[in-house]
Fold:
Amino acid sequence: MFVLALWSVATLVTGSVATAGAPEPAGPPATVTYIGNEGFLVECGGRKFLIDALYRAGVVGYAVISYETRQKMEAAEPPFDVDIVLATHYHDDHFNADAVGTHLANNPEARFIGTSQCAEALKDFERYDEIKSRLHTSVPTEGDIITVDHAGIRVDVMNIHHGRTRNVQNLGYLVRIDGRSFLHIGDSQADADVFKLYKLESTDIDIAFIPYWYLAYAKQKTKVRNGIRAANIIPMHIPPKDLRPSFMDDLGGWQFGTDQMKREFKNVTIYADELEKHRFE
Ligand SMILES: [Zn+2]
Structure:
């Protein structure tokens, strides 16, 4: 399967339509590889980042990464020799301190961006001294942005909550590489008012990684329609296709539920298999 999700759509959406011929691409193509749950490898313009991919045990009901892929990622073997590792929060289906620590120890130029709860867990990693200077784990207050620049990648760190009553920090990231922009909001439970604080409705986003509940449930869909402007949407946190019973059952099953997301939102790319990879022009 090949995705025909064109970057030119972004140009049309923003209104800067080319007058003749094909629109000028706004930047290099990107390839996005699914790792598991909300975990992806993004490659663009010779730069790479891993987000929510370095976890181990996972959580029952959601994808667990194969041992082979985990080993390669933790060893920072190509294609996992990334510039930046990001984690939206410290839950077991997004982050594992030993997995992140091992990767960083094996990839001495790489930086880590995550929450202070992630930082606390990383202190127990046996080679902590080798990695501690490369951790960016400040959490902005809601509405504020902390920017991290590394290796030609600019990351805007946003505070997008995981439920107001839960004691878990959750970060959203706007990653910019060579004119391309990638939004990942982790396990956000935020309403559109939080997205508005970050002006996501007026920010041109090439690829938005959105947890599937925002694309599946009536009350949530408007938050994406009104609150986030993206040329391409990649739904995430979707349970494995063959799992029974599944959190997708109340959406009519995996196939029906994901088909419905594609019908209702433009340019949705559904990932199902570990290491499934698509190129976005
Ligand atoms: Zn979570």
